[in-house]
């Protein structure tokens, strides 16, 4: 059943009446509470005004004091006078913690700390800082003469610095705010909080919600970037009684009146309802135009403001066209995706931290520096304002407003790099060997390093108050003055000798170099001791002599190498001749050997007799001689063959026997030779008795064995008793090498040359040796990828050679 319009209106206004009654009831019951709260607010505002007056009077008092300090200190030329004035006058005020002087180029030149009754502490020159990269120096450098600037650091010291600019410097005092703030906090019984510029609460460990209505706030602006906020907490409850009689008497009357008014209003409104239902067409169009205008504003905001909405699950809800364009994406590429892919790795954990901050404090959180990555891979930096949007006490989404600070960040990085470079240049400046200083055009010292103080005998503070011209002797002053005057044309003056007068009045000759830095109109002043220059000349002379000696040695080496080449050529020719002679001798020797064997057969057929026995004995001796001659000829043939440059697989044992055969004529008269503990016998040679194969150049290795044998024989001949002379040769294998050792008992190698035994021109022989044999032997062994070393053992010299074993499966 459809209700008539009158009934609908009646029901609506009935509900309206009861709602209105409830509102009136709350108004009457809370009237006393609101009135009391207003009174408390007025009292709190009065207290804050009084606090502001006290605090500003305190600031004004120290503004006057810093002006007084500037007017006095700027007239004192001596550092000691300044220190005495600060200690005896200024530091009597225990609120003043420190005093410092900063030059116009941001370098601290003097810093004093108040030790409260004890001698003040003067900060050493090396510990003074350069303030160029600090945030507050940009405000200091724009100060006018005698203009004051205040700043406070972000720390827990609760101090404020008063800075005034003089003609040539900045003067600064650091003031302790503890006493004045405690006075303000304790002056009234009300609960008072004080926050500094960085929102650090001085007398509370808990953050205060500044958006809460429970606080009266007074912000006292000291500077553009410096302020103090005073807060007074309002009483949270004001007691009032709930009056039952009031509800019974007034409540009933109000209900009756509301019911009658409801009927009356329903009748009146029913009459006008039809007119109200027919909406004014013009009004509707006007509202529609307003909506269109709002939509147009949204489009402008979308085009120029970088914003983004993010769901709690990190999904992008929406973002402005301006932000999408900046990132290099389209909206469709970003909406619905996890926003974290836009962040650099270092920034991802920071965002979750900010989300928790926003949800806990229910306020906007500002992230001063936020790093991200564009689609192109380029890094950017944002300042981000984050606010949580709630629905039914739950976060619906986060709204972000982004401000591009990439250029600002780059500028900060440039300033940081510049400051680092300044520190690096200062380090170089202080540690360079020369005395270095920076002068103005008049020759006054502006900056200097420690070495220049050491050279001239002054302290740095003393030199900074002396003109460089005053340090020169009388005859050098005019010349130096002319150099300074004409430096614009010359630009640089290098290494002129001048006479300086040290602090102890002793003259010193120094080498001076000057360079004008045109864009700063300052002069780089470099001093060097002439003693260093003399030492350098002596070193150069010594070096020239050394080079001359090395050239002479090189010429001697070349001469000996030429002699060796000639000798090798002769030996090569002799070898060719020997090969021919051996061939010619071998033919008749074979004929003689064959006929001797036939003759032995004939002798054996003869009947037994003394003559037969003698003939057999003689023929055996002849056979032994022929065999010895055949061994010698075979060794000569092997040694005389042309050296093959290509390596081949050779039995090293056979090469040793060949070398022993060639040296036999010499060795048989000097010493016994044992190979693998067996006495060498030229009449009984079996080159295959031991097999030690290696891939080497055969004739070159035989040359090494001959060199080592000859050296050993030359030393053994010095021993008188033949029976006490011996050479022991051993050849064996280890894991991967073939080891050959030549050992004698001639007393060993002299300790003075044992480490250089394989160097050219180092000889074991007292006479006749050129000292190149072992050097050649080492080169040959090195060419065979082997190792040779020499050492002493059992009163004798040992030469140990290691060569790689030949393995079939490695070929």
TrEMBL record:
Keyword Nucleotide-binding: yes
Catalytic function, reaction form: ATP + protein L-histidine = ADP + protein N-phospho-L-histidine
Domain PAS: 421-491
UniProt-listed SUPFAM superfamilies: ATPase domain of HSP90 chaperone/DNA topoisomerase II/histidine kinase, Homodimeric domain of signal transducing histidine kinase, PYP-like sensor domain (PAS domain)
Annotated keywords: ATP-binding, Kinase, Membrane, Nucleotide-binding, Phosphoprotein, Transferase, Transmembrane, Transmembrane helix, Two-component regulatory system
Domain called Histidine kinase: residue spans: 580-807
Pfam annotation, one family: HATPase_c
EC number(s) from the headed UniProt entry: 2.7.13.3
Signal peptide feature range: none
Listed CDD domains: HisKA, PAS
Sequence intervals crossing the membrane: 12-34, 249-273
Gene3D superfamilies: 1.10.287.130, Histidine kinase-like ATPase, C-terminal domain (3.30.565.10), PAS domain (3.30.450.20)
PROSITE patterns listed in its UniProt record: HIS_KIN, PAS
NCBIfam families: sensory_box
PANTHER family to which the protein is assigned, alphabetical: PEROXIDE STRESS-ACTIVATED HISTIDINE KINASE MAK3, SENSOR HISTIDINE KINASE
Protein name from the UniProt record: histidine kinase
């Amino acid at each position: 059943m459809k209700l008539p319009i009158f009934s609908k209106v009646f029901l609506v206004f009935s509900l309206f009446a009861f709602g209105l009654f409830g509102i009136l009831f709350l108004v009457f019951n809370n009237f006393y509470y609101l009135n009391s709260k207003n009174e408390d607010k007025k009292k709190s505002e009065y207290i804050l005004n009084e606090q502001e007056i006290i605090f500003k009077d305190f600031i004004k008092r120290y503004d006057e004091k810093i002006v007084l300090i500037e007017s006095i200190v700027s007239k004192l030329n001596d550092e000691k006078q300044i220190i005495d004035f600060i200690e005896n006058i200024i530091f009597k005020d225990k609120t003043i913690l420190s005093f410092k002087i900063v030059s116009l180029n941001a370098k601290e030149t003097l810093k004093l700390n108040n030790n409260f009754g004890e001698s003040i502490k003067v900060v050493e020159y090396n510990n003074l800082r350069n303030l160029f990269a600090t945030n507050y120096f940009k405000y200091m450098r724009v100060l006018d003469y005698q203009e004051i600037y205040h700043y406070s650091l972000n720390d827990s010291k609760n101090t404020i610095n008063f800075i005034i600019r003089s003609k040539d410097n900045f003067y600064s005092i650091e003031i302790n705010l503890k006493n004045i703030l405690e006075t303000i906090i304790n002056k009234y019984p009300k609960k008072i909080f004080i926050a500094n510029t960085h929102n650090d609460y001085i007398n509370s460990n808990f953050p205060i919600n500044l958006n809460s209505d429970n606080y009266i706030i007074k912000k006292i602006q000291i500077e553009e970037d410096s302020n103090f906020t005073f807060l007074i907490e309002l009483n949270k409850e004001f007691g009032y009684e709930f009056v039952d009689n009031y509800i019974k008497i007034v409540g009933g009357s109000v209900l009756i009146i509301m019911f009658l008014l409801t009927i009356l209003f329903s009748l009146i409104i029913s009459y006008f309802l039809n007119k109200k239902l027919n909406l004014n067409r013009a009004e509707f169009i006007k509202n529609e135009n307003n909506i269109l205008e709002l939509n147009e504003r949204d489009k402008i905001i979308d085009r120029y403001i970088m914003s983004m909405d993010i769901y709690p699950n990190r999904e992008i809800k929406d973002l402005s066209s301006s932000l999408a364009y900046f990132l290099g994406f389209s909206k469709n590429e970003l909406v619905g995706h996890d926003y974290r892919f836009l962040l650099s790795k270092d920034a991802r954990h920071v965002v979750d931290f900010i989300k928790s901050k926003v949800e806990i404090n229910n306020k906007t959180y500002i992230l001063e520096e936020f790093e991200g990555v564009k689609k192109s891979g380029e890094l950017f930096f944002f300042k981000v304002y984050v606010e949580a949007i709630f629905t039914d006490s739950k976060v619906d989404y986060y709204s972000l407003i982004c401000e591009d600070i990439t250029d600002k960040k780059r500028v900060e990085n440039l300033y940081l790099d510049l400051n680092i470079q300044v520190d690096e240049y200062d380090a170089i400046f202080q540690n360079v060997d020369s005395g270095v200083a920076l002068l103005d055009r008049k020759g006054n010292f502006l900056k200097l390093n420690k070495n220049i103080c050491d050279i001239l005998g002054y302290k740095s503070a003393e030199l900074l108050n002396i003109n460089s011209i005053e340090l020169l002797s009388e005859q050098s002053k005019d010349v130096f003055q002319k150099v300074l005057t004409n430096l614009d044309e010359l630009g640089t003056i290098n290494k002129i000798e001048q006479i300086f007068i040290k602090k102890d009045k002793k003259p010193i000759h120094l080498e001076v170099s000057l360079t004008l830095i045109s864009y700063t109109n300052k002069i780089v002043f470099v001093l060097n001791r002439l003693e260093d220059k003399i030492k350098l000349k002596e070193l150069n002379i010594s070096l020239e002599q050394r080079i001359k000696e090395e050239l002479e040695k090189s010429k001697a080496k070349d001469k000996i190498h030429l002699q060796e080449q000639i000798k090798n050529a002769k030996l090569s020719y002799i070898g060719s001749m020997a090969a021919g002679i051996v061939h010619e001798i071998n033919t008749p020797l074979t004929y003689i050997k064959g006929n001797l064997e036939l003759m032995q057969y004939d002798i054996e057929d003869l009947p037994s007799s003394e003559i037969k026995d003698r003939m057999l004995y003689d023929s055996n001796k002849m056979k032994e001689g022929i065999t010895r001659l055949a061994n010698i000829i075979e060794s000569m043939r092997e040694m005389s063959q042309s050296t093959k440059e290509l390596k081949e697989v050779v039995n090293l044992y056979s090469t040793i026997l060949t070398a022993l055969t060639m040296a036999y004529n010499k060795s048989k008269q000097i010493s016994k030779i044992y190979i693998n503990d067996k006495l060498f016998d030229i009449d009984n040679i079996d080159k295959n008795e031991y097999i030690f194969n290696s891939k080497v150049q055969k004739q070159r290795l035989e040359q090494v064995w001959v060199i080592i044998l000859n050296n050993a024989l030359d030393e053994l001949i010095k021993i008188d008793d033949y029976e006490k002379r011996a050479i022991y040769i051993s050849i064996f294998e280890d894991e991967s090498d073939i080891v050959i050792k030549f050992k004698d008992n001639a007393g060993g190698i002299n300790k003075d040359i044992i480490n250089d035994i394989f160097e050219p021109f180092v000889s074991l022989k007292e006479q006749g040796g050129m000292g190149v044999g072992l050097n050649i032997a080492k080169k040959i062994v090195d060419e065979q990828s082997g190792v040779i070393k020499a050492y002493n053992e059992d009163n004798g010299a040992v030469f140990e050679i290691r060569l790689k074993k030949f393995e079939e499966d490695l070929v």
